Structure formats: C-alpha cells, structure tokens
Amino acid sequence: SFEAASMELENIVTAMEAGQMSLEASLTAYKRGVELLQYCQKQLQDAQQQVRILEADLLKNYTLSEIHDR
Questions:
Q1: Residue 60 pLDDT more than 90?
Q2: What is the spatial distance between Cα 30 and Cα 25, in angstroms, rounded to a whole number?
Q3: 26 phi/psi in degrees, rounded to 5
Q4: Which of 6, 31, 57, 66 is 20 to 30 A removed from 38 (C-alpha atoms)?
Q5: Pick the residue with more confidence: 67 or 59?
C-alpha cells in the first residue's frame, strides 16, 4: 500500500542519514528507495487522476441539474 511504501521509504532515509551502513548496504537501500519513491509517485498520480475524473463528473452533474431546474 501507499502507506506501507511511504513508511519503508522513511525508514530507509533515516537509516542512510545515520551513516552506519556499508557502501553495499547503502547502494541496495538506495535502489529500494528509488523503487518505493516511483511506486508512491505513481499511486499519487493515479489518485490525482481519479479526483480529476470525480470533479469533472460532479461539475457535469451539477451543470445538468442546474439547467434542468431552470
């Protein structure tokens, strides 16, 4: 889920900022972080698209209702 991916990404960033990881572990964590970031961005884009569709439908229904009531 978005929430789980976001939390994992936060944990990776915290661990990397602590500076206690080996170079190999840092590289692996970085790669995983990129994957998680891409996943989260995709989820946000999908959610934004759904909101746009819902808003367009709402506006269309409101406009039709307003015309019908006249």
A1: no
A2: 8
A3: -65, -40
A4: 57
A5: 59
The answer to whether residue 43 scores a pLDDT higher than 70 is yes
Greatest extent of the chain over all pairs of C-alpha atoms, in Å: 71
Give the CATH number for residue 6.
1.10.287.1040
Domain range enclosing 60:
2-69
**pLDDT at 31 exceeding the cut of 80:** yes
| Spatial separation of the C-alpha atoms in residues 52 and 63, rounded to whole Å | 16
The answer to whether 13 and 33 are in contact (CB under 8 A) is yes
pTM of the full structure: 0.75
Spell 20-37 as b/e; 16+ CB within 10 A means b. Answer: ebeeeeeeebeeebeebe
